[in-house]
């Protein structure tokens, strides 16, 4: 579809930016976003895999935007068609360390399954397990903010595995990719498709250590770009409607 605005390319993170963390996009937000995506070139980039992204976005939005970068940009979809995928075989020593973190965690709450999730081109690790109910995720987040379990694991893992990029995922996990296979890879891919347009990236974790940081940094270095940090979807709408 021809877009009215050809000078700008908009890239959005999903969790905490277009949707509340791990929850579907709200109806109010979807109504506004549909109109925005009809007039502008829009791409979405997420650490989540395609199945999770589909469960959070209305189908017409998943299929209607210009492209979806899933699993940190290691898979790319256009109109529901997979255009490419990149794979990653994690070092067995990394998996052993993650198992140890799970066993030795001091988190006083409950633990759930799916704590090492292997996705296309990456691993997502969550001490409490990705199959936790929403209220348990909130409890862990609150505890982790206070005791810094994820930051400590991140610091230690970076020392052992300098060829890996380890970022705080959303609220309960770490995203682990080989260096260069994080969200930053999206910058080059977009630039080859849109040589002259200004790339505007909006995310909630653009600060150092957050999982939008490497893309924000790469775009800044590349130039002809702008980074917008938001607190949540409501804040995003406020900033875009200004
Ligand atoms: O999209 C942000 C993050 O969302 C989830 O994070 P968490 O479960 O920690 O809130 C994960 O899918 C993560 O990979 C992703 O980066």
Descriptors:
242 residues; alpha/beta; Rossmann fold; Hypothetical Protein, Haloacid Dehalogenase-like Hydrolase, Chain: A, domain 2; seven-stranded mixed sheet; four-stranded antiparallel sheet; 9 helices; 11 strands
Task: Give a description of the structure.
The chain folds into two domains: 5-86 and 182-240, Rossmann fold, CATH 3.40.50.1000; 92-178, Hypothetical Protein, Haloacid Dehalogenase-like Hydrolase, Chain: A, domain 2. The protein contains nine helices and eleven strands. It is an alpha/beta fold and 242 residues long. 1-O-phosphono-alpha-D-mannopyranose binds at residues 14-15, 21-22, 46-48, 124, 169-173, 175, 211.
Reported CATH architecture of the largest domain? 3-Layer(aba) Sandwich
Named CATH topology of the largest domain: Rossmann fold
Mean pLDDT: 95
Count of DSSP H/I helices:
9
CATH superfamily of the largest domain: HAD superfamily/HAD-like
Bound molecules: 1-O-phosphono-alpha-D-mannopyranose
* Name of the CATH first level of the largest domain: Alpha Beta
Please state how the strands of the largest beta sheet are arranged side by side. 5-4-3-2-1-10-11
What is the total domain count?
2
**What is the ordering of alpha helices and beta strands?**
EHEHHEEEHEEHHEEHEHEH
Which regions have little confidence, pLDDT < 50, spanning 5+ residues? none
What is the strand tally? 11
Strand content: 15-25%
What is the chains' assembly state?
single chain
Give the biggest sheet. Answer: 7 strands, mixed
Structural class: alpha/beta
């Amino acid at each position: 579809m021809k877009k009215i605005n050809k000078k700008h390319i908009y890239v959005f993170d999903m969790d905490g930016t277009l949707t509340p963390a791990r929850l579907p996009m709200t109806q109010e937000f979807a109504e506004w976003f549909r109109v925005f995506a009809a007039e502008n070139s829009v791409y979405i980039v997420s650490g989540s895999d395609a199945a999770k992204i589909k469960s959070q976005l209305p189908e017409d939005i998943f299929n209607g935007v210009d492209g979806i970068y899933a699993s940190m940009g290691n898979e790319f979809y256009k109109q529901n068609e997979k255009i490419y995928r990149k794979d990653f075989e994690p070092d067995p020593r990394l998996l052993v360390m993650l198992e140890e973190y799970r066993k030795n965690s001091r988190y006083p709450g409950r633990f759930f399954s799916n704590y090492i999730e292997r996705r296309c081109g990456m691993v997502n690790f969550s001490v409490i397990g990705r199959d936790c109910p929403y209220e348990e995720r909130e409890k862990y987040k609150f505890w982790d903010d206070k005791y810094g379990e994820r930051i400590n694991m991140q610091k230690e893992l970076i020392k052992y595995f300098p060829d890996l990029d380890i970022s705080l995922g959303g609220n309960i996990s770490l995203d682990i990719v080989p260096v260069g296979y994080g969200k930053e890879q999206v910058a080059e891919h977009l630039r080859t498709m849109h040589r002259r347009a200004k790339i505007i990236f909006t995310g909630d974790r653009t600060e150092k250590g957050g999982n939008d940081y490497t893309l924000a940094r790469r775009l800044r270095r590349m130039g002809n770009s702008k980074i917008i940090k938001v607190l949540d979807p409501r804040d995003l709408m406020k900033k875009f409607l200004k």
